[in-house]
Write a structure and sequence with these properties.
The structure is a homohexamer.
Chain A: E1 3-8, H1 15-27, E2 30-36, H2 47-57, E3 64-69, H3 73-79, E4 84-89, H4 92-108, E5 113-118, H5 128-136, H6 147-156
Parallel strand pairs in A: 1-2, 2-3, 4-5
Chain lengths: ~160, ~160, ~160, ~160, ~160, ~160
């Protein structure tokens, strides 16, 4: 069985993330979507909420598991006995940062491979932080995030 | 009449901004230069000061109006009944960020078009934040910002 | 009246070009779409055919004129008494080349301004040469170029 | 069983290609390395020779098949009943071109996914064409291509 | 005698920095490695510690001097009567930022030249901040920084 | 004595090249400007003419030598007993190509260092090929290349 791990902040999950999850789930037998705990950031949703939002948004995709982790991604991946990390790419700036992280992860554990998937081009401008910024300024985020996320974001205000 | 809106932080206006304003004013019948209110940033000049500095620096350009706004740019643009946003580009890194914002704005309102203009290459290295950094460290900012801005920056210390 | 010139090879016109033409025609009072004559290239369609294809594909856009030119773009623009050039941008690689050309054109005539417009993100991967390559290898180009272009490309084989 | 196709010109196979093949073979159950026939290029090795060189260079990797194809990659992939294409990335310039091709392939067949893998950073400067250029100018290509390739390149002169 | 100044935060010095110091020391008669004081950042090591770590890591390189400075780099360089600044480049994102700084420095003093050197490709993913992040999460930083740095980082916890 | 080699096609030398030569001559004790022989290209000026044009354009710079070479640059550099190669950078696209070449040269001979210098930003759009293209289409190249080059280009037609 070929498994892959798709890590991210997912604060909150966007339709771009969901697109990658769907594509990854068709490419691998099992995909573990995992929310990273970043103690320095001040998130809109806490870890449990983010996990819950992903579960509800991706409820129709059967071969996924939603989880969270703290510490080094590469340690988490080893514990899960998976050797593939999935990252979505939207643009050149993504690419450089992700490349750097992937090379560092390869240095830390050469048995784990990072595979990059392209986000659907209609979501190329989409990021969780931009969604939050638009939302806070009163703009519509319809079509950018799953319906359930809009509902929960409204509760946060 | 063809109008355009040129938004920015302008904290403070640089000679690169002034170059774009001048070029935009020759390309459109009217240009609204508008200062964005960003509650997260800690600016050197407040909104009113920034508006005033632009007015004084661009006093010889007749077909411009200087204004400020808070909230979503795309809402401001709609209220002004303008459908063109002008952004200056200096380098590749600018381009990616501005592209992302422009695509988001297009998603929010497809009737508004973002047009990119090139900054004069002699100002390709110039940004408000770099000007402030050089100034704070005691370097000369002659030629980088309008004379009136240098005078007002000296008062701030 | 604010006019703009949108130059290109258009061999053949794609739906990405058509998207830019449509947006430019809403932004300016008149848009001159002009096909450049490049003696070094071996085009699929000759100059007259390319002009004709643009006319037929954009038949519903009223405020455009379709033309062609040889020699320096900047001389053509001056003869037409227009001072705005429109270029579409898809990605970073476009940007660098177009920036270089625009700076050279500014050096040749500082009264002419190049404005960059973003192609719709759904066409971000689209180019005339890629369309021709796919077509020659037997792939479907439905949705990538106007219907009339598909018809004429089939005649070329 | 999860299979992937790794297409390329491989004129000739380099140690960078071999690194990607090895990593792909660990990530998927089966990898089909396939040499593309490009009628426009004037290759150093013909299709059969390139296939043979890959077979000999990768003789120790068991779960691969070496093949060649002409026509559209996406048609070849469908015939093979595989839905994953592997591409190696070295640098930003690679990324833009490969992104464009992958988006076009997704447009042609949305069931096929392109996954990008990073070349080992020690091969980040390596390309078949650069190897050939160095070789023709009398430079050493030891360590850049498999031994068997050096031997066959010497016979070509 | 041809001298050069290699400035940086060096919080802490990495093997990538050390590689540049070694190469610079072979290219120039004397190299001044200088640690910049940045009042806004919250460093892991203070100025004196960073100077000390560089001295100990580079103890075998004879023609270097290790120093620190506050204020404008260009003023420091003038005081030292040196007219060459060395900067290491790893990737495209480095390049844009460093280019901007170098152009600003040229504007401030046209007699000082910035020369860019390439970091060894095996360190292309390496940065002080990434090293600190990996270390804090419990990962191994063996091979990324000099031994003496690992020892001192362990004391900091 | 610290010497450096500045290689290029110089077909013809531009004011951007001359700017780099001048800066390099102030940074090193001696600079060898060397014209590369490329058998595949069809140059406007032959090797001897290009050498002659550089000599005349840079006649006031005392510590330079103008030369030409064929074969591998790295072999030429070794024969000259120099261990520094100078390359000018204008933009991101330059950077990637030059980086690749510099890494290959480092692989071929690790004792030779490539140093990158920034072209003056007013020449950031300038290349020999763009100059030739503008000239052939009848545009003015005043200010882009040395006077002597304009004179010789006019004779070529």
């Amino acid at each position: 069985m070929r498994s892959a791990i798709y890590p991210g902040s997912f604060d909150p999950i966007t339709n771009g993330h969901l697109d990658i999850i769907r594509r990854a789930a068709e490419t691998f037998d099992k995909v573990i979507v995992t929310v990273s705990h970043n103690p320095n950031k001040n998130p809109m949703f806490d870890l449990e909420e983010r996990v819950e939002l992903i579960k509800r948004a991706a409820v129709d995709i059967e071969n996924i598991e939603v989880d969270c982790f703290s510490g080094l991604l590469i340690d988490y991946v080893k514990n899960k006995e998976v050797n593939v990390i999935i990252k979505g790419l939207r643009a050149v700036s993504d690419f450089e940062y992700e490349f750097q992280m992937a090379l560092m992860n390869r240095k830390l554990n050469d048995n784990v491979e990072t595979l990059f998937m392209m986000t659907n081009s209609q979501y190329s401008y989409l990021s969780s932080s931009l969604v939050k910024e638009v939302f806070k300024l009163g703009g519509s985020i319809e079509g950018l995030v799953p319906e359930i996320v809009i509902k929960e974001m409204k509760k946060k205000i």
